[in-house]
Amino acid sequence: MIWNEKMETMDLNELKNIQSERLAGIVKYVYDNCPAYAKKLSKEGISTADIVTIDDLKKIPFTIKEDLRDNYPFGLFSQEVKQIKEIHVSSGTTGNPTVVGYTKDDLKLWSEVMARVIACAGGVPGDMIQIAYGYGLFTGGLGFHYGAQEMGLTVIPCSSGQTKRQLKIMTDFKPRILACTPSYSLYMAEEAREMGLNTKASSWKVGIFGAEPWSEAMRKEIEATWDLDATDVFGLSEIIGPGVAQECLQKKGLHIFSDVFYPEIIDPKTGQEAKPGQPGELVITTLTKQGIPLLRYKTRDIVSINYEKCACGRTSPRISKIQGRTDDMIIVRGINVFPSQIEHVLLGIEGTQPHYQLVVDRKTGELDELEVMVEVDEKIFSDEVKKLRALEEKIRDEIESVLGVLVKVKLVEPKTIQRSEGKAKRVVDKRTL
Amino acid sequence: MKITQISIFLENRKGRLFDVCSLLGQKKINIRALNIAETEEFGILRIVVDKPAEAVKALKENGFVAHLTDIVAVEVADQPGGLADILKILNENNVNVEYMYGFVERSADKALLVFRFDDPDRAISVLNSNKIKIIGSKDIGGL
Amino acid sequence: MEVSYWNKEIETLARPDLEKLQLQRLKEIIGYALKTHFYKKRLEKAGLKSPEDIKSLTDLKKIPYTTKDDLRENYPQGLLAVAPEEVVRIHTSSGTTGIPTVIYYSREDLNNWTENLARSIVATGAGKKDVFQNMMSYGMFTGGLGLHYGAEKVGMTVIPIGGGNTKRQIQLMKDFRTTVLHITPSYLLHIHSKLEECDTKLEELALRKAFIGAEPHSENTRKKIEGLFNIDAYNSYGLSEMNGPGVAFECVYKNGMHIWEDGYITEIIDPKTGALLGDEEEGEVVFTNLIRKATPLLRYRTRDLAFVYKNACPCGRTHRRLSRITGRSDDMLIVNGVNVFPSQIEEVVMRIPQVGTNYQIYLEKDGALDKLIVKVEIYSKMFSGDINELDKLKTRIGEDLRASIIITPHVELHEPGSLPVFEGKAKRVVDNRPKL
Questions:
Q1: Fewest CB atoms less than 10 Å from the CB: which of A224, A399, C212, C268?
Q2: DSSP characters for B7-64?
Q3: ipTM of the complex model
């Protein structure tokens, strides 16, 4: 089923009129409501009169993650806080977190695009959905919750973790839809086998997997394991959370809801438009969002885009799976991790100089493991095992509290971390997706 | 009467213990007592040597993290209950043992043990007042 | 004192009218109960074949009590009273020994629940201008999502942070000028002890109110919280069988929690004999849920001990007030707001082959928070002499317990034969927390 048939199947030329109208509207809105943005635009000599059609978008400067962080906490909010009905926060690259605020209308928009996502993946009214994305400040859980509620589905708000319980709930209530990270679905399979469950006989027929990169090979494995259709969902909290783009059952790219999230693909170095079909950095303009509208936001995700109409009937352009990043961010168990955040934590712990390396690995059927290797120096060395253990624990706890991800800390001898041109290599990613 | 122990941080990797021992061998430094505390990922090698200053210098020059700790070496009667007698005294005087291990050599009917106390000075005075023989650093070289 | 209402008409409805409404809703809910496998049998046995067999509220007495065991025995579908497509939400909670319990909600049920929470929030004087930091866990635990919906309904700004991560909690309280919290009292006290470490002064916070619940606490604890933060703290009560939070809530007078009686018929009984007790007599609280059709529960024994106040409240609400919860009539433990049965712990530790025959559960205070210590004896035949093995065993026990009871206990390994042995039923729980 197509949730919003009108918008999702509209001829792209016709849609352009709506996009143009909405762009002009949002630029005016930003001028009227968001002083930080207004300043930024007027500095570039852009007035509302300059923005008439969607093609005028190119005149507008890019917005980057640092703009959000530097204006923390409320700088890019276009509304008084009391008009903001929900706040989500993700950890920033260092120090200040990244904040997103939703007005009542934004929450409606989120519910609508998430309903589109679930329908696009094959969900229909009357279905039951097991949501195993984390609930709370992370947008995954509540995003799916709102979309499923909008569709009138039966929601099981499992949140993440508690794998045995997840499987028991699947067995007892027979939900047809599963929403979680792709690696967690394989991890659950491992646990299911240990419990003696036949994974192929599971009730899940529709899988909506995202929050981390995954490959066609993983899709095949997940589909074979659980006997379901595995689809990819894309989103980022700065834009709305999950709900920016979703694969249909053709599984040939993710439909981006361009009537509300206008995509551009650029060469990240020059900022120029990439050649059609060529991969580049995805840039998104939110055409209707009120709480924090973003104009030409650089997502740092590398994708390509396809404007051909899809066999499913949707005209919404399709972006490829994420092919890489323009920065050093890694995604561990669906959580975004910047090496600079870890460095920040290590610096904060007395005596630890930041000679460190992050090693990410994923063994078959297991979840990502992030190992933080820290070189031991004389300041932190002790002749007692328990003191070194306590140090490991302290580093681990600090990182967990900042990043929300559990890591393994390994103390290593000095100079054992590979260095290239005198600079330590910060990330070793051993995962094969 | 405290003596100096060298502790060295070692990863649980093949050949690391050999690296330390061969380095000390080249420098003609003699290991008198040795103990390894191990965890899954790393170990702490604790040694008592005849020339601690030289040993530490050599280790640091070769990139090891080495650390000096005060320990107390005690002579124990080499017979059943010998160690228990000493522990009883320590126990009664509320002296806490962090860890302990034995010497490589022993003299005649006595065994030599190394203790690490949370409060070495108090431990020494308790041992002294109970007439337990403590070995000084001078004696280490001559053993 | 300024009194505000969310739904003045219902909240101040004259008692006779309120009781009339209860009777009408009771009949309706019995109609739904009769659609379930479980109640059909039980009610017919009690001589109730149709809602019309209920003539007055006193006829409620004909209905036998429902217990948590009934919920477990009828898991998963024995208490479902509507068509599956009418169900929009499912919450399960871990049972006492492995078998969970489940509550289904229709869209209307969720609306009713949300209405009660909106009433509760407004009764404390909080409103849509407030920034609400919801520190209760989200997901299957009803504490988080329940208040989330209520706050959304009232129009507050919601920060859905959930539990844990004290540093971030404090940072967000400061940065977003949070005015209202939903939190367990022990965690709120813990936060106070961490302010200095987080370079935060009380003056930098904009707090004015806290809804405290999910664990029993005393009037002194409330006073302490109010004094330390210079805020008003309101007691909140609920349980997932009765939807979740929002069953009873304090108003600005803070003199007991108004039970939303158009939704819940309340009885207090002697937990031993089952006999009904009068006003201001302490006993076990029994509720009949009048506003949830997907899973009707009649005369449900909560195991919570409390009483109902006799006198009227100056706020003008006609809904009677429940006292603080003073204890439990079973052996359930509440650890930092999480319900734990000793039998759950026993089930986990006894399943592990390296664990011997004896174990003990200790509860201590670690600062403001509860600390659960599980001491187990190792099984000598399984001990290989390897320290790393013991480390792994300790980790495994911790992880297995966490998977079952949601909280991570502190695990201690003991030598075989070193824990005290009790004749007969072992008294394995030692609660060293100060009495309320």
A1: A224
A2: EEEEES-TTHHHHHHHHHHHTT--EEEEEEEE-SSEEEEEEEES-HHHHHHHHHHTT-
A3: 0.91
